[in-house]
Amino acid sequence: MCTGKCSKAIAIPLYVLAGVSIICNIIAFFPGWSTEYAQEDRDGKGDRITDEVKYMGGFIGGGLMCLIPAIHIHLTSSNGCCANRCGMFLSIGFAAAGVVGALYSLATAALVLANGPVCLFKVIGDKDASWGRPFMNNSGSYLGDSELWKTCLKPDDVVEFNIGLFATLLVAASVELVLCAIQMVNGLFGCICGTCGGKEEA
Question: Membrane-crossing residues (predicted)?
């Protein structure tokens, strides 16, 4: 496959994955599909939103830091001056930025899944329920035990909500990481050989 075609094949899925990452991160600010908790968190009534959500790993890392490289990588798929060697060379740097963004998103998502969400829960022996992270110290073992998910009283179904969103982010970031790494290699070959668009037209 020509390096130009390969760039196009990489860029298109990156658009989709970046969009998915941004959407997941935005939705994560509304646990239980409610704006109530985001409002309370903003008003200083205590932590209602999981800390890692505020790190914006999906929005910045898997989103913008992969979307911008995707645009450039897509543009390098066309044949230009000097078989677009300059564009392919620059795509290596953009793809490297995408790798960093994907790693950031991946790390953030993994951290959320390991530590669990912020929720209202009641510890045995305590009189009142309190907000916190009941799964913070169990190394993600709660993921396989749906009975433990009932520990969280509010927001509704917050554990399933978090797992669904951040598992999606984890997968998206992993694929973005692979695609950007491939583009770094593809960009190197494109820099040396060009996009071979001229050969296709001959």
Answer: 12-33, 53-75, 87-113, 163-182
Q: Are 102 and 169 in contact (CB under 8 A)?
A: no
- Amino acid sitting at position 65: M
- 63-77 pLDDT per residue, tens: 999 999 999 888 877
pTM: 0.86
Strands 119-121 and 130-132: antiparallel
Q: How does DSSP assign 3-49, residue by residue?
A: HHHHHHHHHHHHHHHHHHHHHHHHHTTSGGG-SHHHHHHHTTSS--S
Instruction: Judge contact between 32 and 155, C-beta under 8 A.
Output: yes
Would you call 69 exposed, middle or buried from its count of C-beta atoms within 10 A (0-12, 13-18, 19+)? buried
pLDDT tops 90 at residue 46: no
Task: Report helix, strand and coil shares of the chain as percent, to nearest 5.
Answer: 70, 5, 25
How many of the other CB atoms lie within 10 Å of CB of 159?
22
Query: What separation in angstroms does the CA of 201 have from each of 73, 82, 87?
Result: 21, 15, 19
